[in-house]
Amino acid sequence: MNKFLLGAFAATTALTPIAASAETEVQFWHAFTGRLGELVAAQVDAFNASQSDYKVVQSHKGNYSETLNAGIAAFRAQEQPHILMVFEVGTATMMGAKGAIKPVYEVMAESGASFDPEAYIGSVKGYYTTTDGDMLSLPFNSSTPVLWVNRDAFEAAGVDPDMDLSTWENVGGALEALKAGGEECPLVTAWQSWIHLENFSAYHDVPFASKDNGFAGLDTELMLNGPAQVAHLTAMGEWAKDGKFIYTGRRNEGGANFRAGECALFTESSAGYAGIKAEAEFDFEVRPLPYWSAVAQEPQNTIIGGASLWVMEGHESEEYKGVGEFLSFLSSSDVQADWHQNTGYLPITSAAGDVTRAAGFYDDNPGTDIAVIQMTAKEPTANSKGLRLGSFDQIRGIIDEELEAIWSGDKSAQAAMDSAKERGDALLRRFESANR
Fold first, then answer.
1. For every residue of the chain, which 3-state class applies, written as one string?
2. Model's pTM, two decimal places?
């Protein structure tokens, strides 16, 4: 809200009817475009229409990294929004931003808005909660990786689309058959570090970093160069060499290829559902993320991606009341159920999942509950509750460089991950020193 205008209103002893009905503005910066951007805009419009005291103004600020950087720059210029969407790898960075954030649990307590931290599913809540159980940011768009299958591509290559793809051993056989059958893009992936290192480690219950993946202290170091990770990346490197795995980019560039029907298998976020459902002109389905049976007898649990909503310091108490009301609205069962069903993101509350199940959505859309099952079937371990590492956006950039060296055949998986550890650990030490 314009603070000069607010001051003028406060100084007026007799408010006019127009001034009396003025809405308090709440600025919300996010990273969504396309279908997801449309759905966020619809949520904001629904909240604004539901009451007359507050007006949320939503603004797209680029991709996840760009949105985080925009928020940091805005805070330094004292022009920060009230609510900033930050992807999960920015959690430690936001926690270390002293004086920049107002914890969600404080916002909700002071605003008086409806808020029950126990309503949020544990595997999601834990990522954004202190060891004392205080929620720092609000889970919003939480997803987990799954395997997407183009059934038409399988049939065209003469491969049974109903074959067991639960293990990477079986996937390797499928890629061989698909390639032999003429498929030019047997496998493509999105978010290679998130899926094939971060989630791979959690799913096989091996550490990605020491100190409980950073949850137990800043003096952590990367452990992504262990035998399990190296074996997986070695296999993928061989698939890349043989044309069975096609590398398209660090983020979600491969999504366009899969949605266009050009690839048979796609490892991607469960939130790919919105775009795939809207664009795919082929028969598709979702399967659980594969695991290596040589590494684990059964999979543990995947971890979340996506983002949470952080509240920024430096605003008026009345504006924070609006923030609290909006966050409470976003967490309501019907809003969350609708979001989950339309996007493939996890329902962040148990109640939203119950509403979805009761409506018959999972029965009518087989596989859409796989992400929820992957996240909740087992109690998370120290290796599988998530990552909390400083400077992790930059570390991911290092990992991406090293993975590209594997795919191109320039480095072995072991050499690449040893290098990623050395380079990443240097950033962790710098972050630790800055946040003592």
1. CCHHHHHHHHHCCCCCHHHHCCCEEEEEEECCCHHHHHHHHHHHHHHHHHCCCEEEEEEECCCHHHHHHHHHHHHHCCCCCCEEEEEHHHHHHHHCCCCCECCHHHHHHHHCCCCCHHHECHHHHHHHECCCCCECCEEEEEECEEEEEEHHHHHHCCCCCCCCCCEHHHHHHHHHHHHHCCCCCCEEECCHHHHHHHHHHHHCCCCCEHHHHCCCCCCCCECCCCHHHHHHHHHHHHHHHCCCECCCCCCCCHHHHHHCCCCCEEEEEHHHHHHHHHHCCCCEEEECCCECCCCCCCCCCCCCEEEEEEEECCCCHHHHHHHHHHHHHHHCHHHHHHHHHHHCCCCCEHHHHHHHHHCCHHHHCCCCCHHHHHHHCCCCCCCCCCCCCCCHHHHHHHHHHHHHHHHCCCCCHHHHHHHHHHHHHHHHHHHHHHCC
2. 0.87
